[in-house]
């Protein structure tokens, strides 16, 4: 079978025209990326969600550009034949264009990403345009934007009323006009997401945005329930429960070591015949033999008293 070839932005747009759904999943390291590629996903997102699911933060805001470069590079090593998008982290694209492009350059040159993702709409359109003009594909992201969760009132569904739906439509159109090759719609009412998907010529990729998007994206750790404790989410379907298997496997390992049933005969390596006897003759059986040869204190005292009597 011919080796898988990574997508490009032309093929991604063509998939929308042909009504072929795009599949995207997050990955943050070599093994998860390799598994995702072997499973056949179209795109891998090195998301700043790694702050929550890998680094243990309570939001994506503490994630740094160094974090993103490190994890993008590891992911790229595991999925060399998959289109990889890396997140621009918090406050790395709201300053000067020069500063923004320096961050983009690091993700592309050091992180080996094929594209970058940016949260926001109208307020980042100029930055998106500059990045695209510099030759870097940009994936937009509107709706629930975790980096600005403190200003949008928490983790709530977007586009539920007419005014908010219109705002999201305008944001999506601004990103399309700026040159984004696709737009993520996160936690958006299904009707609003469907209208945006019909209106745009570029694909929409939904996460909690209903059934009418041109593709779907989920977090790796949600898909396989790799967390403890795991928090259920309405918009997520769990397709495997590796967390329970991992926990059980490690518990079995601990129990077998404690009971001395691991390692077993099948796990050990044998020396040549006579090696054990040779070592014993040279070193007298080691510390254990020396200690067993020493009388205990009570016995020594008894012998001392007897000798004096």
From TrEMBL:
Function noted in UniProt: Catalyzes the reversible reaction in which hydroxymethyl group from 5,10-methylenetetrahydrofolate is transferred onto alpha-ketoisovalerate to form ketopantoate.
Pathway stated in the Swiss-Prot or TrEMBL entry: Cofactor biosynthesis; (R)-pantothenate biosynthesis; (R)-pantoate from 3-methyl-2-oxobutanoate: step 1/2
Coiled coil: none
Protein name (record): 3-methyl-2-oxobutanoate hydroxymethyltransferase
Cofactor binding, note field: Binds 1 Mg(2+) ion per subunit.
Protein family: Belongs to the PanB family.
Compositional bias segments (type: Low complexity): 288-298
Compartments reported by the entry: Cytoplasm
Bias (Basic and acidic residues) ranges: 299-309
UniProt-listed GO biological process terms: methylation; pantothenate biosynthetic process
Keyword Mitochondrion assigned: no
Keywords of the record: Cytoplasm, Magnesium, Metal-binding, Methyltransferase, Pantothenate biosynthesis, Transferase
GO cellular component assignments: cytoplasm
SUPFAM superfamilies, alphabetized: Phosphoenolpyruvate/pyruvate domain (SSF51621)
Residues at the catalytic site: 186 (proton acceptor)
């Amino acid at each position: 079978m011919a080796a898988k070839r990574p997508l490009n932005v032309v093929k991604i747009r063509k998939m929308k025209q042909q009504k072929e759904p795009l599949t995207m999943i997050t990955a943050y390291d070599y093994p998860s990326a390799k598994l995702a590629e072997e499973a056949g996903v179209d795109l891998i997102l090195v998301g700043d969600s790694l702050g929550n699911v890998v680094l243990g933060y309570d939001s994506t805001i503490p994630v740094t550009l160094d974090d993103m470069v490190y994890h993008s590079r590891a992911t790229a090593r595991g999925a060399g034949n998959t289109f990889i998008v890396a997140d621009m982290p918090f406050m790395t694209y709201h300053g000067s264009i020069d500063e923004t492009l320096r961050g983009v350059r690091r993700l592309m040159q050091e992180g080996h990403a094929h594209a970058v993702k940016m949260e926001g709409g109208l307020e980042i359109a100029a930055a998106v345009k500059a990045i695209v003009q510099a030759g870097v594909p940009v994936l937009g992201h509107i709706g629930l934007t975790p980096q600005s969760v403190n200003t949008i009132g928490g983790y709530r569904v977007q586009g539920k009323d007419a005014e908010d739906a219109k705002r999201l439509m305008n944001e999506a159109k601004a990103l399309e006009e700026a040159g984004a090759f696709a737009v993520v719609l996160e936690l958006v009412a299904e009707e609003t997401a469907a209208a945006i998907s019909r209106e745009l010529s570029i694909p929409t990729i939904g996460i909690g945005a209903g059934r009418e998007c041109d593709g779907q994206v989920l977090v790796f750790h949600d898909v396989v329930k790799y967390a403890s404790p795991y928090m259920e989410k309405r918009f997520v379907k769990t397709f495997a429960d590796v967390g329970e298997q991992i926990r059980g496997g490690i518990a079995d390992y601990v129990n077998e070591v404690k009971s001395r049933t691991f390692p077993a005969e099948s796990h050990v390596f044998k020396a040549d015949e006579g090696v054990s006897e040779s070592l014993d003759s040279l070193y007298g059986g080691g510390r254990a033999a020396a200690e067993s040869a020493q009388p205990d204190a009570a016995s020594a005292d008894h012998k001392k008293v007897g000798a004096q009597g």
